[in-house]
Specification:
Elements: H1 12-16, E1 21-26, E2 31-36, E3 42-46, E4 64-66, E5 72-74, H2 82-86, E6 92-95, E7 101-106, E8 110-113, H3 116-122, H4 133-145, E9 149-152
Antiparallel strand pairs: 1-2, 2-3, 4-5, 6-7, 6-9, 7-8
């Protein structure tokens, strides 16, 4: 069973897909008319009061704000465009026995990992069937035999 996706505030998505967002004009001190180029959607972003003066940012999305402890936050989260609302940076996170993330599955079967043993295990699977629930069960058992645990996301 898939669990809800939980953002870790790493900012990677905003640095990449955020480049598709363009501010067309400033409407007020906190409102911006914008366009995102993936869907061609126009939207009005309203910056939260506490982030006034921090927009536009200089890295990726103009609404990406870096926190002092290294995490990030979206300055216009309630009014973000569809491309941001629908985005998931991972369909599956793979953990080792210590609970450390060892890999992330993105797209339709691309495993991002620096763990050679996990990569070898993954190559024994058939990622073309990734949307098949029985394949997910099989993949989970294969990962478990190799000492990993997978967590799927909606």
């Amino acid at each position: 069973m898939a669990t809800p996706f939980v953002c870790t505030d790493c900012g990677r998505c905003c640095r990449s897909i955020g480049r598709t967002i363009t501010i067309e004009r400033r409407v007020t001190g906190r409102q911006y008319d914008c366009r995102e180029s993936v869907h061609g959607e126009r939207f009005r972003a309203t910056v939260k009061e506490e982030y006034r003066g921090t927009v536009p940012g200089s890295e990726g999305c103009p609404f990406l704000v870096w926190q002092s402890l290294g995490g990030s936050v979206c300055a216009c989260y309630p009014t973000r465009p569809r491309v941001c609302r629908e985005f998931r940076c991972a369909r599956l996170r793979i953990y080792d026995t210590e609970g450390t993330v060892r890999g992330r599955l993105v797209g339709h079967g691309s495993l991002l990992t620096e763990d050679g043993r996990l990569l070898a295990c993954w190559k024994t699977l058939e990622p073309a069937r990734i949307d098949d629930p029985s394949w997910r069960d099989d993949a989970g058992r294969t990962l478990a035999r190799a000492g990993y645990r997978g967590e799927w996301y909606d």
